[in-house]
Amino acid sequence: MSHRILLLGAPGAGKGTQSKRLADEYGVEHVTTGDALRANKDMETEYGTPRSFMEAGDLVPDPVVNEIVEAALADADGFVLDGYPRNLEQAEFLSEITDLDAVVFLDVDDEVLVDRLTGRRVCDECGANYHVDFQPPAEAGVCDECGGELIQREDDTEETARERLQVFYDNTEPVIEHFRDEGDLVEVDGEATPDEVFARIGDVLAE
User: Fold this and answer.
1) Is residue 15 annotated as a catalytic residue, yes or no?
2) pLDDT in tens, 44-94
3) What pLDDT, in 10s, does the model give residues 33-58?
4) Which of 78, 94, 118, 155 has the fewest Cβ atoms nearer than 10 Å?
5) Can you give the chain as a three-state secondary structure string?
6) Pick the catalytic residue: 153, 162, 180, 200?
7) 86 catalytic residue (yes or no)
Protein backbone atom coordinates (compact mmCIF):
# COMPACT_ATOMS: atom_id res chain seq x y z
CA MET A 1 0.00 0.00 0.00
CA SER A 2 1.11 3.55 -0.60
CA HIS A 3 1.68 5.58 2.51
CA ARG A 4 0.81 9.27 2.80
CA ILE A 5 2.99 10.59 5.59
CA LEU A 6 3.45 14.10 6.97
CA LEU A 7 6.56 14.79 9.06
CA LEU A 8 6.52 17.83 11.34
CA GLY A 9 9.34 19.13 13.50
CA ALA A 10 11.46 22.16 14.24
CA PRO A 11 14.64 22.98 12.27
CA GLY A 12 17.23 20.42 13.37
CA ALA A 13 14.66 17.81 14.43
CA GLY A 14 15.79 15.42 11.69
CA LYS A 15 12.89 15.70 9.25
CA GLY A 16 15.12 15.63 6.16
CA THR A 17 17.07 12.57 7.30
CA GLN A 18 13.95 10.60 8.25
CA SER A 19 11.98 11.69 5.18
CA LYS A 20 14.63 10.35 2.80
CA ARG A 21 14.82 7.04 4.68
CA LEU A 22 11.03 6.66 4.75
CA ALA A 23 10.74 7.46 1.05
CA ASP A 24 13.38 4.80 0.26
CA GLU A 25 11.88 2.24 2.65
CA TYR A 26 8.29 2.53 1.38
CA GLY A 27 9.00 3.43 -2.24
CA VAL A 28 7.13 6.75 -2.08
CA GLU A 29 7.99 10.30 -3.14
CA HIS A 30 9.89 12.62 -0.81
CA VAL A 31 8.04 15.91 -1.33
CA THR A 32 9.56 19.13 0.03
CA THR A 33 8.18 22.60 -0.62
CA GLY A 34 11.51 23.78 -2.00
CA ASP A 35 11.86 20.88 -4.44
CA ALA A 36 8.21 21.20 -5.53
CA LEU A 37 8.62 24.92 -6.18
CA ARG A 38 11.86 24.45 -8.12
CA ALA A 39 10.34 21.64 -10.20
CA ASN A 40 7.25 23.73 -11.02
CA LYS A 41 8.67 27.25 -11.01
CA ASP A 42 7.02 28.10 -14.32
CA MET A 43 3.61 26.69 -13.42
CA GLU A 44 0.94 29.31 -14.11
CA THR A 45 -1.31 30.20 -11.20
CA GLU A 46 -3.74 33.08 -10.93
CA TYR A 47 -1.11 34.83 -8.79
CA GLY A 48 1.75 34.35 -11.25
CA THR A 49 4.49 31.75 -11.46
CA PRO A 50 6.66 30.74 -8.47
CA ARG A 51 9.68 31.91 -10.49
CA SER A 52 8.41 35.52 -10.45
CA PHE A 53 8.46 35.54 -6.63
CA MET A 54 11.67 33.52 -6.22
CA GLU A 55 13.65 35.74 -8.59
CA ALA A 56 12.42 38.85 -6.79
CA GLY A 57 13.57 37.30 -3.50
CA ASP A 58 10.01 37.36 -2.17
CA LEU A 59 8.22 34.67 -0.20
CA VAL A 60 6.00 32.63 -2.49
CA PRO A 61 2.41 33.31 -1.33
CA ASP A 62 0.36 30.54 0.28
CA PRO A 63 -2.12 30.09 -2.61
CA VAL A 64 0.77 29.49 -5.04
CA VAL A 65 2.56 27.11 -2.66
CA ASN A 66 -0.73 25.27 -2.10
CA GLU A 67 -1.28 24.78 -5.84
CA ILE A 68 2.28 23.53 -6.35
CA VAL A 69 2.04 21.08 -3.45
CA GLU A 70 -1.35 19.85 -4.63
CA ALA A 71 0.14 19.17 -8.08
CA ALA A 72 3.14 17.35 -6.55
CA LEU A 73 0.92 15.15 -4.36
CA ALA A 74 -1.47 14.39 -7.22
CA ASP A 75 1.45 13.00 -9.25
CA ALA A 76 2.79 10.91 -6.35
CA ASP A 77 1.80 7.32 -5.60
CA GLY A 78 2.33 7.79 -1.88
CA PHE A 79 4.54 10.47 -0.33
CA VAL A 80 6.47 11.76 2.64
CA LEU A 81 5.74 15.48 2.99
CA ASP A 82 8.49 17.52 4.64
CA GLY A 83 8.52 21.30 5.21
CA TYR A 84 4.81 21.86 4.46
CA PRO A 85 2.40 22.98 5.86
CA ARG A 86 4.12 25.94 7.52
CA ASN A 87 1.01 27.66 8.86
CA LEU A 88 -2.62 26.98 9.74
CA GLU A 89 -4.03 28.03 6.35
CA GLN A 90 -1.74 25.56 4.58
CA ALA A 91 -2.65 22.84 7.11
CA GLU A 92 -6.36 23.34 6.51
CA PHE A 93 -5.79 23.24 2.75
CA LEU A 94 -3.79 20.00 3.06
CA SER A 95 -6.57 18.37 5.09
CA GLU A 96 -9.02 19.23 2.30
CA ILE A 97 -6.98 17.79 -0.58
CA THR A 98 -5.65 14.52 0.87
CA ASP A 99 -6.23 11.88 3.56
CA LEU A 100 -3.01 11.41 5.49
CA ASP A 101 -2.14 8.00 6.92
CA ALA A 102 0.11 9.46 9.58
CA VAL A 103 1.13 12.86 10.94
CA VAL A 104 4.36 12.45 12.91
CA PHE A 105 5.80 15.24 15.04
CA LEU A 106 9.48 14.81 15.91
CA ASP A 107 9.69 16.19 19.43
CA VAL A 108 13.13 17.57 20.34
CA ASP A 109 14.14 19.88 23.21
CA ASP A 110 15.21 23.40 22.21
CA GLU A 111 18.74 23.09 23.60
CA VAL A 112 19.28 19.87 21.65
CA LEU A 113 18.01 21.59 18.49
CA VAL A 114 20.42 24.50 18.98
CA ASP A 115 23.32 22.06 19.45
CA ARG A 116 22.34 20.23 16.28
CA LEU A 117 21.93 23.39 14.22
CA THR A 118 25.14 25.09 15.37
CA GLY A 119 27.18 21.90 14.91
CA ARG A 120 26.42 21.61 11.20
CA ARG A 121 29.30 22.12 8.79
CA VAL A 122 29.02 22.30 5.00
CA CYS A 123 31.72 21.75 2.39
CA ASP A 124 32.53 25.02 0.62
CA GLU A 125 33.30 23.09 -2.57
CA CYS A 126 30.77 20.27 -3.04
CA GLY A 127 28.06 21.09 -0.47
CA ALA A 128 28.36 17.83 1.52
CA ASN A 129 26.91 18.08 5.05
CA TYR A 130 28.65 17.11 8.29
CA HIS A 131 28.07 17.57 12.00
CA VAL A 132 30.81 18.10 14.56
CA ASP A 133 29.18 15.58 16.97
CA PHE A 134 26.97 13.25 14.95
CA GLN A 135 28.68 13.02 11.57
CA PRO A 136 32.21 14.38 11.81
CA PRO A 137 34.59 14.18 8.85
CA ALA A 138 37.63 11.89 9.08
CA GLU A 139 39.85 14.97 9.38
CA ALA A 140 38.49 18.01 11.23
CA GLY A 141 37.50 20.83 8.88
CA VAL A 142 38.16 18.81 5.70
CA CYS A 143 35.52 17.25 3.45
CA ASP A 144 35.76 13.45 3.07
CA GLU A 145 34.26 13.65 -0.42
CA CYS A 146 36.45 16.24 -2.14
CA GLY A 147 38.96 17.62 0.38
CA GLY A 148 37.25 21.03 0.42
CA GLU A 149 37.07 23.29 3.46
CA LEU A 150 34.15 22.78 5.87
CA ILE A 151 32.44 26.00 6.93
CA GLN A 152 29.68 27.01 9.33
CA ARG A 153 26.92 28.73 7.39
CA GLU A 154 25.66 32.08 8.62
CA ASP A 155 22.26 30.63 9.41
CA ASP A 156 23.84 27.96 11.66
CA THR A 157 25.07 30.36 14.37
CA GLU A 158 23.39 30.15 17.79
CA GLU A 159 21.62 33.51 17.48
CA THR A 160 20.20 32.59 14.07
CA ALA A 161 19.29 29.10 15.27
CA ARG A 162 17.23 30.52 18.14
CA GLU A 163 15.53 32.99 15.79
CA ARG A 164 14.65 30.15 13.39
CA LEU A 165 13.14 28.16 16.25
CA GLN A 166 11.02 31.11 17.38
CA VAL A 167 9.70 31.61 13.84
CA PHE A 168 8.92 27.90 13.68
CA TYR A 169 6.95 27.96 16.93
CA ASP A 170 5.06 31.13 15.99
CA ASN A 171 3.97 29.68 12.63
CA THR A 172 3.77 25.97 13.21
CA GLU A 173 2.25 25.59 16.70
CA PRO A 174 -1.23 26.16 15.15
CA VAL A 175 -0.41 23.47 12.54
CA ILE A 176 0.46 20.97 15.28
CA GLU A 177 -2.74 21.85 17.17
CA HIS A 178 -4.77 21.47 13.96
CA PHE A 179 -3.64 17.88 13.42
CA ARG A 180 -3.86 17.11 17.15
CA ASP A 181 -7.51 18.28 17.10
CA GLU A 182 -8.17 16.08 14.06
CA GLY A 183 -6.78 13.12 16.01
CA ASP A 184 -4.03 12.41 13.47
CA LEU A 185 -0.95 13.61 15.35
CA VAL A 186 1.54 11.16 16.81
CA GLU A 187 4.53 12.52 18.73
CA VAL A 188 7.81 10.65 18.41
CA ASP A 189 10.85 11.35 20.58
CA GLY A 190 13.25 12.89 18.07
CA GLU A 191 16.18 12.89 20.52
CA ALA A 192 16.81 9.17 20.09
CA THR A 193 19.34 7.90 17.53
CA PRO A 194 18.28 8.22 13.87
CA ASP A 195 17.79 4.42 13.72
CA GLU A 196 15.55 4.44 16.81
CA VAL A 197 13.50 7.37 15.49
CA PHE A 198 13.11 5.57 12.14
CA ALA A 199 11.97 2.39 13.89
CA ARG A 200 9.39 4.32 15.95
CA ILE A 201 7.96 6.00 12.86
CA GLY A 202 7.75 2.53 11.29
CA ASP A 203 5.76 1.35 14.34
CA VAL A 204 3.34 4.26 13.92
CA LEU A 205 2.77 3.35 10.26
CA ALA A 206 2.25 -0.30 11.10
CA GLU A 207 -0.58 0.44 13.56
Assistant:
1) yes
2) 988 889 999 988 888 899 999 999 999 999 988 999 999 899 999 999 999
3) 888 988 899 999 888 899 999 888 88
4) 155
5) CCCEEEEEECCCCCHHHHHHHHHHHHCCEEEEHHHHHHHCCCCCCCCCCHHHHHHCCCCCCHHHHHHHHHHHHHHCCCEEEECCCCCHHHHHHHHHHCCCCEEEEEECCHHHHHHHHHCEEEECCCCCEEECCCECCCECCECCCCCCEEECCHHHCHHHHHHHHHHHHHHHHHHHHHHHHCCCEEEEECCCCHHHHHHHHHHHHHC
6) 153
7) yes
